[in-house]
Amino acid sequence: MTSLRSVKRNAVTVCLLTPQFQTARREFDPPTFRVLVRNDGDKVCDFSPANVTALSGASSVHVFTRMEYCQAINRYEDALLRLGHGQTSLHETSGDGLQDVSAMSLDPAMSKGVSNRPVQEFSEYTAIPSTGASTPQQAAVNHRRKALLDEATRMLVQRTVAPGTMAGGIIKLDPAKISHGQPLKLVVTVGGEAHEFVFEVGS
User: How far apart are CA 141 and CA 134, in angstroms?
Assistant: First the structure.
């Protein structure tokens, strides 16, 4: 797991959790990062998904909120049920509104002021109860849905960060606008200062 750290007035650590991802959502495997901020100032600051922006080249990449990601999970799993597929892959299906899978990989690029650091774990976890299943297909879909929604409980939400404390969570990017060969830049803004992290996107 790759961890990058930027230190200015405050400190930001970004951990890359998905070195490979899918450009479509058939495998529902969007680029995922853990972002941890440390408030080294003397005033409280707010931190939320709105403080994280992403660019693929010059194109803006959407950062999911927790609610948006949960809604996307449910749309994806409901589509599987409608199509009659309970397996992880939908490679053989076409014309269903879900694009073909195209894998990409991420590698951290050198960024000014950014260094490799040991990973610092931070998570907030609340279990989400599973739903009942009437068929093996429904059981498979519900199992996968629960795993994805459980992970979503660790996503970044609005936080107030007191001086001398840390906060963070997982962020997920919509892969639709991420292009092969274009650098992927994450910009994390804390206390009015921007911390940039650049990743190379291969094929």
Answer: 11
